[in-house]
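User: These chains co-purify. Model them together.
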Amino acid sequence: MTENNRNHDTDPGADGSDRVIATPTSTEERVISGTSEEQGSHEGAYSAEEAHPRPEEVQRKGERTAAVWFTLAFLGGVGFLVSYFLFPPDAQGDPSIAHPLVGQWANMLMGGTLTLSLFGIGAGMTVWARQVMPHYEVANDYDELPSSPEEKSSFSDFFMRGADESGFTRRPLMRRTLLLAMAPLGVAPIVLLRDTGPLPGDTLRHTLWEPGMHMVVEGTHREGDSQWIHEGDLRAGGMISALPYVEPDPEHPHGLSLDAQAKTVILLIRMDESDFSDEMTREQRNWTHNGIVAYSKICTHVGCPAALYESGSHRILCPCHQSTFDAANGAKVVFGPANRPLPMLPITVDEEGYLVADGDFSEPVGPTFWDAQRGE
Amino acid sequence: MSRTTQAPKALRNAGNYIDDRFHLAKTGKKQLGKVFPNHWSFMLGEIALYSFIILLVTGVFLTLWFKPSMAEIVYDGSYERLQGVPMSEAYASTLYINFDVRGGMLIRQIHHWAALIFVAAMLVHMLRVFFTGAFRKPREINWLIGVALFALAMVEGLFGYSLPDDLPSGMGVRILQGVLMALPIIGTYASMFLFGGEFPGEDIIPRLYMLHILLIPGILLALIGAHMLILWHQKHTQYPGKGHTEKRVVGTPMLPAFAVKAGGFFFFVFAVTAGLSAFVQVNPIHLFGPFTPTSITSGLQPDWYMGFMEGALRIFPNWFDVDVAGYSLATAVLVPGLVIPGLIFGALALWPFIEQWLSGDKRHHNVADRPRNAPVRTGMGVAGITFYGLLWMAGANDVLSETFSVSLYATTWFFRIAVIVGPIIGFIVTKRICLGLQLRDREQLEHGYESGTIQQLPSGEFIEVHKESSEDTVHVLESKEPVSRIEVQAFDENGVEAPSSRGLMGRLRLRLADWYTRDNVSFEGVRPHSGHHLHHGAHEEEHSPEQDREEATT
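Assistant: Joint model of the two components:
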């Protein structure tokens, strides 16, 4: 939109009037000087010296160009309406756009015509402004911002007279009790927020896992005991993302609510027992079974599932912020921002060799909170 | 064109009807004549405003079908690929908008694209205001409103793209919850209250929905209204030029030219948004699948404006985490999640007041600074951009690592170092460039510009002819004001310390003020074209004490 020309061309057009600032480019200047009578008869919102009307033939050409754009825009708009009706539901009432390819065509056709319509209006208006309208800049004074001292003191007098008259300044008992009366009301909205949720209590410290609970692979259909994970399902170097097995109920066809899944999901990792780090405590080793370890899958940083496992280095990586844990060493943090190791789930097998939990997690799962490692 | 038509009868009647009730004729004439300075950079804020309008319109449309519910259902809708998959009603209703509502996909994409453009336009608009000093007195309040708008728009966007409850956006909510949990003492309470229990619960989507469509847009609307009213009342700043003074603003009047230009520009902005939405897919939630707290995909990215926080979370190490007696202070979450955005927005909000404190400049400013004429400010701005930009890129370090086959941890280390070193280099380089440009400006002001014409003198010497710059250019060059600075002299003539320089704050202020104003090319006493027009040998004089000084103090 800028028409200010600040390069080294000297602008010859500034005439006497102090309200005329920008001058037309040299070609326009020439044209204007040729149509001085027309300029004299200008009766626009601003005086003739300020407004530089475009010559009639430029305006006529501008009008035609703008009209072409507006016509295109009209056709685009009609096209938009038409393309809406080009994709009706089929005889059964199923929408035709449900097919991704058809949906994509519908999107492009409707979007394309809408774009044409909007662009045409924009282009037409721009041609209108640039070729039909006179071309000029005007000046306007900035307001003097600070009021004059007299105005200020007069206001101040008025205000304080009013305040005194009201007694607010001279009746401290009334003033203070009013403020006092308002204080509890100010707190009320915050208090009302109390029932937005339960207190944490110790819910964050416990999960569904309990001794003897079987496991199923996360993400598949989890009904029936045929889905239980057997210790033989894991080879050394293998990793399975698993959930506890819970009988399905009508509300949760897969047995577990999202809340429960968010806390109970684990990574089952098997490696050669000799790969376990010497730093692992006896207790931690007792929580493993035949080289199988179970860690919470939820990262202790901010709670993404730490889903990537590299069997060669025994590293678990969270793809969100790249916290890296050593699966061979109690999921100790070896890189990245996580605060503490992934909590470990004690596991063992039942008589038939199915993996079962041997208790709950060693620590609260998920993002580290203030007293997460405080114990009960 | 050269005759004034009388107002049509219908218009006159309507006008009279309104004026009978509001007495608006005089005000109306004045306001319709409001002057809008012409410069492309004044259109950045317009883009933000128009994007907001597009967001309001398309957002209302989306609410007709969207169900803000986390009730778990098994999908049985018309998008075949997800049939039989358990998902929330929010996600299913978004699929419905995509695949059952004609134009629904288009409106969703326009809404999303407009949001991306909205925040981007605000950011670039804010940078323009920063670098040209348009935030200076009397416009500090409007700057603060702008900073608040930017922060709110980010939150609004985050909540908005979380609503469909698809896998990546749900993970964004998870990260939000993780950051809340890390708050000392109140963290678990804040999380339980916001989510109505444990994560993810059943309440968060309805609550984010309320915030996204009612509370935050309401505040945004009010603040945008205030922003515009203040702008209208104080009038625009303007760039230096002939006739552009601190007392008078020069530009296109509202009626007729600006109204038509701005109207046309609105349609251009809308057209670009619609064109992108027609042909460039954005946020294809039907490809992402519904949220489950147990699944993840690699290469996850938030919308661009959350990228700097994502990057900060990735590169900030856990070395400063405090674990004492079972209590944890997870600084690796708290610093990137709260301290870094706090610093960025805090610095933005405080900058006008810091600058005023250092320069002691309490005057009104209506003519914008050229960025080169405020080298420290411009340098700080570039340092800020570098910091933000590197954090933003760090938010994609896994993608960078994969694309360029670099070790993932190497990218982390690169960004850890770069976010500290980069801004410093950016500051120094920018300040040097500014000072160099100042020197060139002074030379051009004194000697005119290099015409490219080579002449041979009778003596055989070759010279380049310098020509006088245009009047407009001279106005621009002369717009550089002497640097306003507080009295750095700590002692008066009697050896008594000035009261303002006593104490820790006083001394800090002096040091900072010196740093802020020290390096600068003085234009004092420079008269336009006072140098030899035909002579090019002025370099010795040009090597002025100021120049020596800034070289010494870098």
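The domain at 40-310 of chain B is CATH 1.20.810.10 (Cytochrome Bc1 Complex; Chain C).
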